[in-house]
Amino acid sequence: MPKETRDETPRTKPRARNRRVAGGDPGKRHQILEGAREVFAARGFDGASMSDIAAAATVSKSTLYVYFQDKEHLFVALIEREREAQKEAMYAALSDEPDLVRALSRFGERLVRLLTGEFALSAHRIVLGVAERMPELGREFYERGPMVGAQRLAAFLSRRCAGGELAIEEPGLAAAQFVDLCQSTLMRPRLFNALRQPPSEAEVARVVDEAVRMFLARYAARPAA
């Protein structure tokens, strides 16, 4: 009888249950982002190094590179995290409020508070400082932030046009105009550090109220003659 042959093929060791994929621990990722936030705020983009960030996050550099391939991707991830924490409340104003004036006012006020906050200003300054030699970073910052916001506002305006409240031929352009109106006299002085403190609630409300008035003077639907 033929000899029974033993299968010599090495068997794959079963993967330990509940073992996280490399770079997949949300707690560690949070720890790294907190360290990066501290370093970027203190030293800016160019002054920060992956060694500094690893030290601030109390992780090894090898661990840091498991989660983020370079400083640029780490910075973009940090911006995304901060935006996500704040922008949903801003967009909720558009979906939860049936009154058009109140919806635009609440959206505008939350937008201005976001843009004039310390982290958003720091991120804008850093991106503007490196965008010429790192255009891909500038493009990613714009496409994931301002462009998405303008698209969501444009979709809201289109719905209100369909409901007969607004008459807008180019919702994308109108959305950009409204965003710019809300920032008037508030964003640029903060961006250039001419104003060291965020605008007061009363000042934000005043500027946004005027923005809404101007916007509706142009785009509110007029009753048929």
**What number is the mean pLDDT?**
86
The number of domains: 2
| Assigned CATH class of the largest domain | Mainly Alpha
Q: In DSSP terms, counting alpha (H) and pi (I) runs of 4 or more, how many helices?
A: 11
**Biggest β-sheet, characterized?**
none
Write the H/E string, N to C.
HHHHHHHHHHH
**CATH topological fold name of the largest domain:** Tetracycline Repressor, domain 2
Distance between the termini: 103 Å
The low-pLDDT segments are 1-20
Structural class: mainly alpha
Q: Outline, from the CA principal axes?
A: elongated
Number of strands: 0
* Estimated radius of gyration: 24 Å
CATH architecture of the largest domain: Orthogonal Bundle
Portion of residues within helices = 55-70%
Strand content: under 5%
In CATH terms, the superfamily of the largest domain is Tetracycline Repressor, domain 2
